Amino acid sequence: MTGTRQLHFRVLGPLQVEDGSGPVAVGGHKPRTLLAALLVARGEVVTADRLLAAVWGDAPPDGAPTALRAYVSRLRGVLGDAAPLRHRPPGYFLSLADATLDADEFEQRVRTARAAAAAGDHQRALAELDAALALWRGDALAEFADEEFAAAEADRLAELRAGATADRAEALVELGRAAEAVPELEALVRRSPTWERPAVSLMRARYATGHQADALAAFHELRTRLDDELGVEPAAPARELYRRILVQDPALAAAPPPPGNLPRRASVFVGRDREVERVLAALRAGPLVTLTGVGGAGKSRLAVEVAARDRERFPDGVWLCELAALPDGSPVGDAVSAALGIRQRSGLSVEDSVLEYLRGRALLLLVDNCEHVLAHAAGLVAEVVRRCPRVVVLATSREPLAVEGEQVWPVPPLPLEDATALFVQRARAATPDFRLDAADADAVATICSRLDGLPLGIELAAARMRVMSPAEVAARLEDAPLLGGGRGPVARHQSLVAAIEWSYRLLPEAEQRLFRGMSVFAGGADLRAVHRVADPTASEDDVLDRLTRLVDRSMVVVRSGVHSRYRLLETLRAYGRAQAADAGESAELARRHVVYHVDYAERAGAGLQGADERAWAEEALGVYDDLRAAFTRAAADREWDLAVRLVAAVPELVHLRVGYEAYAWAESLLPVVDPGHPRYPAAVGAAARGAWNRGDFALARATALLAPAHPPPPGSARIAHPGDVLADVALYEGDVDAALRHYTAEAERARADGDRVRLVWTLYYVAVCEAVRRRPELGLAAARESLAVAEATANPTARSMARYALGLVLKKADPGRALALFDEAGELAASVHNFWWYGIALMEAAATRAVHGDPAEAARALVAVLDHWERVGDSTQQWLNLRYVARLLQRVGAADDAAALHACLVAAGKPSPLGPPDGNGSRGDPRAAEAGAVAHARAALGRVASSVVRA
């Protein structure tokens, strides 16, 4: 290299030139165009005529050649020897031997990634592709894309970028992270609808996430687009993958995703290397480490980074439970169970259900933001430490949990070097061309010192780089109150409060009002909710503008997706609540929050029974924290009408997808809500259904009888009809005729009302009852009608139920067809996050394999069902599954195991396929009986699967 200066040319976005000290000013549009034309040539000679055409178009003025020479001379002066611009007849060339070009780096990294992928090193490929794609700052040669000299190169780079994006998605699939790949591939398909590669990759990614039906749909959509636009069929790779997906080729199975739910880190973790290593060492030394410190100290980010680096040590994964959305002082069991994806078990509290699930597992549980629910969090963590020897807990809190065995680790402020690096990172996020030069270094050091190295305060200050200089920010912080009064925890908290106060006071009044309003949300909100709740007097467009500015200033965090969601970090939320209280707005905000979410719950409840169930499910699951908060507020304020409307609306979301928490809401309302309220029967049905799922049939019957003659109004949740619960109790207790009479009458009522969703549900049960009564011809008629009506609704859960019913009727006569129907039912249910119906279909498919399939495969399938119902906490379905296990054990000749499991079933008073029902009921602890039966079944199935026992 000639000299020490190195130039970096950037064309993957707006044209930029940088050297070691920051941006290099090239000049106006014409010098920039000249440079771009030379860069496009990549060191080759560009004729003077081509340069004239690039700079002045097809008709350059008479003086253009002279002006071109002047621009070349000026550009030489700017670039110097670091990138010599030389004359070589018939034109000029730019030497890049000692400079770098981001497009070249991009292409080299992509080549390296593809070589790594070909060698099977998909982790290396992903890292290279992430680095390559991070070089892009917008469209290539963005300001020249319409110019003839740049168009071809811009298109070529855009194609390479799309290819690299597809490569990245394929690497994610290979690494077991197909769910992350799906949205990227869907976006690629939208941008390039006739490009087959992303469509083929999307098929594979959807299949890898368990969505066979969606994978096949991607092929059909591709075929339609190609036929409509090009008049051709998909190429052989797409057709072959379609065939393999249809037959469920085992070779298509992706690597299993790593267990856990840690969020993808949105930014590079800055500094704290020493702290990370020390916390990792503490975790290895004991069962509980609590990171303490003031709000904004970076406890959560440090905890997530530590957990991510320690993932390999825990075979059952790393699980993040965020408590920030919980009301002050509330129990934490439901939040922990939801994070783990488990549900309350029959006869157990939700906390004991969590402990029972964790007892035999080896995992890291990250419990974040404990301070406002300290007593409950400490109580549960203490029991985890005492009763779950292979679980390690990493907690964050502003104060210790005071639990035996706790290692308290105060999170220190960032040292100046790390604080400066964080400031620069966040400043560049706000203003991509921000560079830290010598003139600004002292001001940035002052900012970081004044904010005591607290990451949240530094991020708030860095966000102001879009409109202020470092010196201006430092000067304003000098005037802020409470700064510089010491370096203890109280002083650091005051520094953070002052930084938040400073950022808040810089906001216009309308943005302050919106910020205060957003503090009412427990888990965040989309634009519609922010508008309706936080600032309903403004237009939605104005709210979006203000929200955008709050995001730009790091006062609000945005999570992008189909529906972007906005939230306040907990420290900012607490400040916003205090400001709302001072402004006298809290009560009205809370009221609007409740009203909005009751209305939302009713819309979502209806949407979940329609054709757009998947979209509603994915959106509504993100709203659940605020639905809980809305119910809590409504009940506390004795707003019984709002509370019962919400309870009546949520079973389609909560029962089928979240857990049993909302059943407790329903139970709490029954003594206080007027039985004449139109939604009272739905609340009764929801409470009764909860008892039924827990296996408490006596309570389910007694609860349902509170409203036996008053069905909920049309459109109510499918599972919230009290009469249906009574019929289901009868069915599971052996009175099939009573259940059939009820559902036959209800089917006639649904036909008369034109309620297709209700008709699918009732015909499903008619088919089930006829199958149990061994009248397949009647069951077949009901199942076929159910399927026809379900297809007309286009509702995935209805379509899943109907396929299940048809499979049940056909199971004996055509087991192959039945098995295919059960698998389709499971795929449809899984596609809309309906894990309850997914479990039903999974169980019946396993039961069919137990009778007609390979015993080892059936055993593995039944173990998966045991795991599913154990996680879900549905004792009623678990006992049914245990009967299917007994049948398999009979089939393979495992007489001792079959007899032992039969004894468990009889001891629990559960009907067994090996003998008549025990009418005396359980003669012991039902929880212990179920746990013993499951443990025995799991061990026996393991012996079958490993071929120790053979038929």
TrEMBL record:
The segments labelled Disordered in the record are 912-931
Is the DNA-binding keyword given for this protein?
yes
Pfam families per the record?
A: BTAD, HTH_77, Trans_reg_C
Q: Which GO terms describe its molecular function?
A: DNA binding
- Cytoplasm in keyword set: no
* Residues in coiled coil: none
Its GO biological process annotations read: phosphorelay signal transduction system; regulation of DNA-templated transcription
Recorded family membership = Belongs to the AfsR/DnrI/RedD regulatory family.
Instruction: Give the protein name, as stated in the record.
Output: Predicted ATPase
Organism, by scientific name, is Geodermatophilus aquaeductus
- Please name the taxonomic classification of the source: Bacteria, Bacillati, Actinomycetota, Actinomycetes, Geodermatophilales
